[in-house]
Amino acid sequence: MASKKLQGQVAIITGASRGIGAAAARRLAAAGAAVVLTARSGDALAAVAEDIRRTGGVAHFVVADVADPDQLDPVIEGTLDRFRRVDILVNNAGMLWPLEETADADLDEWAYNVQVNLIGPFFMARTVLPLMQHQNYGRIVNISSGAAARPIPGWGAYCASKAGLDMFTKVAALEVAKYNITVNALYPGLVDTEMQAAIRSVDTTESDLDFSYWQDAYEGDRLTPPHEVARLIYWLVGPWSRDRNGEIFRAGDSEWRRQVNRDAPA
After folding, report:
1. Are the CB atoms for 169 and 121 separated by under 8 Å?
2. Three-state secondary structure along the chain?
3. What is the pLDDT of residue 212?
4. Which of the four CATH numbers 3.40.50.150, 3.40.50.2300, 3.40.50.720, 3.40.50.1820 does domain 10-263 have?
5. Which residues of the chain have pLDDT under 70?
6. Could you tell me if 98 and 143 are in contact, meaning their C-beta atoms sit under 8 angstroms apart?
7. 181 and 139 in contact (C-beta within 8 Å)?
8. How many other β-carbons are positioned within 10 Å of the β-carbon of residue 152?
9. What local confidence, expressed as pLDDT, does residue 188 receive?
10. Which residues are tagged catalytic?
11. Which residues contact 42 (CB under 8 A, 6 or more apart)?
12. What pLDDT shows up at residue 219?
C-alpha cells in the first residue's frame, strides 16, 4: 500500500484510460494525489476514475486528444476549477503506428505519430508550466522509450518522436530548474500493454521487418506488468527525486530499481 507522500497534490495523467497511464493514476491516487485523467476514450476513462473513487481516491476525467491543442484548455480548466493547482504532469499518451519502412509509410499517419508522441507532451507542458512556475513547484515525467536510442526498421516515426521527446525533456529541465520544477523521462521497458499486443499482431510475412524480439519476450514471460512501471513513476514524482532533473531513467537500471524498492516498496 502506497503511503500518502502525494497528499494535497494534483496530477494530470495523459493516456490514462489503460495500460501504464491507468496504473499510474491508481498509484498516484493511492499516494494521496487528486488525479485528472485524460485520453480519447470516455468510457474507459470513466471506468478507471470510478475504480479509483471506489477505493477512496479522488479522480476526475476529461476526454481529449493531446495532439489537438484546442482540446487541452478544458483539461486544464477542469483541473483548476476543481483543485486550484497542478503539481504533477505525466505525459504518457503515445502511439506506435505506422509500422512501415519509410518508403512505404503513410504521410498522415507518420505526422500524427509525431503529433501525439512529441508535440502532445510539448502542448501539455507548455500549458501547465506557467502554473507550476507560479507555485514554484512541479514534477513532469515524459514516458519515452528505448526506441529513442535504438533504430528499429519500420519504426521511423516512433523512434524519431521519442528521440525528440528525450531532447525536449532535457531542454525543458534546464529552463525550469530555477522554479523547483523537474522534468525527467522514463524508458519503461517491455510492458504488458495493448501496444505490445499490437506489435505482435503485425503481419511481417511479406516484408523485411522482423518483430520476433517482441514475440519472444511475450512467450518468454518477460513483459513487465503496468503497476510496476507505475511505481517508478510514483518515485519520479515523489519526494525522492527532488535533486534529479533532466535525466532519462531506465526501468532496466538495477541500481535505480533498488533505490525505488527501498523508497517506494510494492
Report:
1. no
2. CCCCCCCCCEEEEECCCCHHHHHHHHHHHHCCCEEEEEECCHHHHHHHHHHHHHCCCEEEEEECCCCCHHHHHHHHHHHHHHHCCCCEEEECCCCCCCCCCHHHCCHHHHHHHHHHHHHHHHHHHHHHHHHHHHHCCEEEEEECCHHHCCCCCCCHHHHHHHHHHHHHHHHHHHHHHHHCEEEEEEECCCECCHHHHHHHHCCCCCCCCCCHHHHHHHHCCCCECHHHHHHHHHHHHCHHHCCCCCCEEECCCHHHHHHHHHHCCC
3. 81
4. 3.40.50.720
5. 1-2, 206
6. no
7. yes
8. 16
9. 98
10. 158
11. 61, 63
12. 84
CA-CA distances (angstroms) from residue 183 to 70, 88, 107, 146?
Answer: 24, 10, 31, 18
pLDDT at 2: 54
